[in-house]
Amino acid sequence: MKKTTLVIMAAGLGSRYAPGRIKQLEPVGPNGEIIMDYSVYDAARAGFDKIVFIIRKDIKKAFDEMIGDRLAKRFDTDYVFQETDDLPEKYSSLIRPKPWGTAHAVLACRGKVSEPFAVINADDAYGRQTFEKMHEFLVSDSVGGNKLHLAMPGFILSNTLSESGTVTRAVCRTDENSMLSSITETYGIGYREGRLTALTAKGAETTKEIDPAERVSMNMWGCPAEFIDTLKGRFEEFLKVYGSDKDAEFLLPTVIGDMIDKNQADCRLYETDAKWFGMTSAQDRQAAQNALRLEIENGVYPQSLI
C-alpha cells in the first residue's frame, strides 16, 4: 500500500486569538491534550504513516514542549518552517509582517513530502470519518490522466459555525459526479437578526443571505505529491500581482479553484456530516472542550491521549 503523509499547518499567527498565546497549542482535552492530538490520533487510525508539521521557527521550542517531542516517540515526524522571507530570488526584497497564506505553507514542504498527503489546519478538528475518506482516496490507484487529482471533505456550513463570531468559509459547488466545479471564499458568515448571512465581499458593509446547508471546505485537502511542485510557479505569479499588498494571501482554495477552471486538476468532494470545532478565537476554547467531552463520553476518543 502507498505511504501517506499528514501535513499539519501550524504556522498561523492566530491574530484573532488571545494576545501572547499560541492557539494551536492551547489545551482543550481533559489531560491537557491540544486539538492536534486528536487529529493525529484520527489520522493514525485511518492509516497515515508520517506527520509533517509546518510551523514558524520562533514557536519551535514551545511546539516541541507541548506536542512535538511527545509525538516523535510514537510517529515518524518532520518539520518545515513557513517564513515570510521564503521567496523566489526575484522577490527577495519584499517585506511581509505575516505568513503568505496556506498555499505558501504547503509550498514550504518541497523536498520533505514525496508521497500522497492530506493537509489540515492545526486548530481545526475534522473527525475520524474525514481522515478515513482522505486516506482511502490517497492510496487509491483508480485515478490517472494528464491532470492532478485531489479530494476534500465537504462539511455542512451550519456544522462549522463559531459561537464566538463570524467565520470565513470556502463555499463549494459540485457537478453530478460529486466533482468540485467551483469554490468561493466567503467572508463574515454568521447569524444576524436570526438569519444566516455573509458579507457580499471581503471588507464589505453589505450582506447576503446564505443557505446553512451549503457544503464548505475546512481547508482539508487530499493531494498527490506533485501538487507541491505546481505551487512554485503559481506563487511567483501571485507575487507578480500581489507582492506589494501586505494583506493578500496565497490560499489553497484559490489555487485549487483556478487549477480546476483551467482543467489542470479535478477534486472529488466527499460529503460529511461531522460537526467542526476549532480555535478561531479564545472564546472557542470552552466550546471545543465541551465537544471533546461529549466525544469521549460517546466512546469516540479515549479518556487520555497523553
Secondary structure elements and pairings:
Elements: E1 5-9, H1 35-46, E2 50-55, H2 60-72, E3 76-81, H3 102-107, E4 117-121, E5 124-125, H4 128-139, E6 148-156, E7 167-174, E8 180-192, E9 195-199, E10 207-209, E11 215-217, E12 221-223, H5 226-242, H6 252-261, E13 265-272, E14 277-278, H7 284-297
Parallel strand pairs: 1-2, 1-4, 2-3, 6-13
Antiparallel strand pairs: 4-12, 5-14, 6-11, 7-8, 7-11, 8-9, 9-10
Helix pairs in contact: 1-4
Write structural notes for this entry.
With 306 residues, the protein is of the alpha/beta class. It has a single domain (5-297), classed as Spore Coat Polysaccharide Biosynthesis Protein SpsA, Chain A, CATH 3.90.550. The protein contains seven helices and 14 strands. The chain has helices spanning 35-46, 60-72, 102-107, 128-139, 226-242, 252-261, 284-297; strands spanning 5-9, 50-55, 76-81, 117-121, 124-125, 148-156, 167-174, 180-192, 195-199, 207-209, 215-217, 221-223, 265-272, 277-278. The strands form three sheets. A seven-stranded mixed beta sheet has the order 10-9-8-7-11-6-13. A five-stranded mixed beta sheet has the order 3-2-1-4-12. The longest helix is centred in the C-terminal third of the chain and has 17 residues, at 226-242. The chain is globular and about 50 Å long. The two termini are 29 Å apart. The mean pLDDT is 91.
